[in-house]
Specification:
Blueprint lengths: L1 H5 L3 E4 L13 E2 L1 H9 L3 E12 L4 E10 L13 H7 L16 E5 L14 E5 H7 L4 H4 L12 H8 L12 H4 L8
Parallel strand pairs: 1-4
Antiparallel strand pairs: 1-2, 3-4, 5-6
């Protein structure tokens, strides 16, 4: 039973019923979901076909919970390697190829050795091959062209980009909350 429970995370929605984040998807372990439910911090929106029992009570295992208090997302996300990859949709900005994260690097458009800063406006996602090809030159000097000019994204842009990448685990009860604005089947 414990193994089945470990494969029963809960999707966490903000008070407006949107996921707190799409990539990585906002999920809690079954223990955290049950604890938050018992403490009255969340509403249970959907449940698994399982029940958690103790000597004094039983509770349906939550599969989707919504926070009772709305958490306002920060307007500007943190500058991290992962968020740069997400902004650029895991796509090399020189070749246009989408690659797994472990095959990507980030490249300074204006190299650091030439005064380039590590900022949203000067860093792009690149494959190792194209990063080496560019070397210590500007894209123009290397005869390379960016697919998109780098800029600082807002939280909503990263959320939208994150929706393009399906999670590793997707319970049927989550679909309505992850893809609530997707076109309905005819």
């Amino acid at each position: 039973m414990l193994g089945a429970l470990e494969r029963s995370p809960a999707l966490v929605l903000n008070a407006d019923f949107r996921p707190l984040s799409y990539f990585p998807l906002s999920i809690w372990s079954w223990q955290d979901a049950v604890k938050a439910t018992l403490l009255g911090r969340v509403n249970t929106v959907a449940e698994y076909d399982r029940v958690i029992r103790s000597p004094s009570f039983e509770i349906a295992l939550p599969s989707v919970v919504s926070l009772k208090q709305y958490i306002k997302p920060s307007e500007h996300p943190a500058f991290t390697r992962f968020n740069v990859f997400l902004r650029d949709k895991f796509t090399c900005q020189y070749s246009g190829r989408r690659l797994p994260a472990n095959e990507l690097t980030f490249d300074h458009v204006l190299p650091r050795s030439r005064g380039g800063k590590t900022t949203w406006d000067n860093v792009v996602t690149a494959s190792a091959e194209y990063n080496l090809k560019k070397g210590n030159r500007t894209p123009e000097q290397a005869g390379m062209f960016l697919k998109k000019t780098p800029k600082r994204p807002n939280t909503w842009e990263l959320l939208e980009n994150g929706r393009s990448f399906p999670p590793n685990y997707l319970h049927k009860s989550w679909r309505d909350y992850l893809y609530w604005d997707a076109e309905l089947d005819q």
